[in-house]
Design brief:
two-stranded parallel ribbon; two-stranded antiparallel ribbon; binds arginine; 59% helix; mainly alpha; 462 residues
Length: 462
Amino acid sequence: MAKAEKSWEKRLSGEPDELAVNFVESLSYDKRLYKYDIVGAIAHAQMLAEQKLITRDEFKAIKDGLIEIGEEIAEGRFKFEKKYEDIHMSIEAALVEKIGEPGKKLHTGRSRNDQVATDLRLWMRDEIELLQARITLLQKAFVKLAGKYADVVMPGYTHLQRAQPIVIGSYLLSFAEQFERDFVRLKNCRDLLDVSPLGSGAIAGSTLPLERKSTAKQLGFSDISYNSIDAVSDRDFCAEFIFDCALIATHLSRLAEDWIIYCSSEFGFVRIDDAYCTSSSMMPQKRNPDMLELIRGKTGLVYGSLMAMLTILKGQPSGYNRDLQEDKVHIFAASDTVEACLDMAQAIVSHTKFNTKKISAGLEDGFLDATALAEYLVGKGVAFREAHGIVGSLVAHCEKENRKLAELRLDELKQYCDAIDADVYENLGAANIVNKYVTKGAAGPKQAKEQIAYWTRELGQR
Ligand code: ARG
């Protein structure tokens, strides 16, 4: 049998310009939707049979043909031809070529507009699961590393200036929290996209008695959409999905930035494993954290995709417009990039060591204990504002004499505030202070251990 023509070739005259064929095609990138297009087509055909719009035998032929086509694509035996524009037309044309007449009935009551909207949702449902699995692995890597350093004190920074002492465990768990929100955001995205647009046709539904709940159920959607005009042009879920990817990228870029700084000689807090460093073609001593820099850099692509997606949607007239074809470029780019970055980050986190000697050697620099000293004074009945001023003066005094707060004698301390007693020394020094944190969620070892237990339980169930 001759290869099926595109049926609309009857409508248009002459040959399409080669330039236009190349310009309009999406096959080169939407072929990755093939599995979803096939399951969507089988569900549609089954519904057509249930509704007696095609016979049981026709359905059987369609289903078997589609399955064979799926296998051909999976095994790389399928011949993709650009003239079919996209995966939807390619599969349909191949079906007609393979099974003849029944194949021509598959598109009954269906448009590529509701078809692609369905495929995208099916693809995204799976993609979200893959992303969530990667997020979980990354969280587990953080929790494991946090377990190794649950008691080890490091400086906590605000404005990248030394602020208060924290334990490394808590620092690492701060990322488990960030990625947890990403996990939940993706779940919410999945919940919202869980409606079937199939049966909405091109814009107005159909005069044929399509049973939309049947296809929705077969495809595992929990509901159908209730407005065909909206259903074929809604890509809110694409924008949301890319936004979720963009925040994952944001979090990864902050981790990358921290560790790029932390592995500099100036800090020397972490050692990124050699496997995740590169060297310089010129400077023989170099050990560069290029993977982290790339994680940080690739954030740009994901933000770009988000901006592109929103711009594609802005101001489109109601109903489907071909602009929407570009949605795939950006959802694929964003998710591929974020997947790769999550994998890379997980590998790096799993192999990173903190240089605890270097960290503790510098721990008493920068007056990390100043806030705790002010709070000690509050305990002695001094109003916080006043305590803040007293400690500020003490710090200035120490700075002049190049000493630490803990090095001041009691009589010297008392000159600034009479309420200070000998027990003050338990409240000075970074290592002492982390054990004094009592608030829930604080950055001390006790809280870190509680959180490690929580995350181990929680993530163990995923
Ligand atoms: N390739 C198209 C897309 O991705 C499929 C829908 C085309 N619909 C149309 N009416 N031309 O959006």
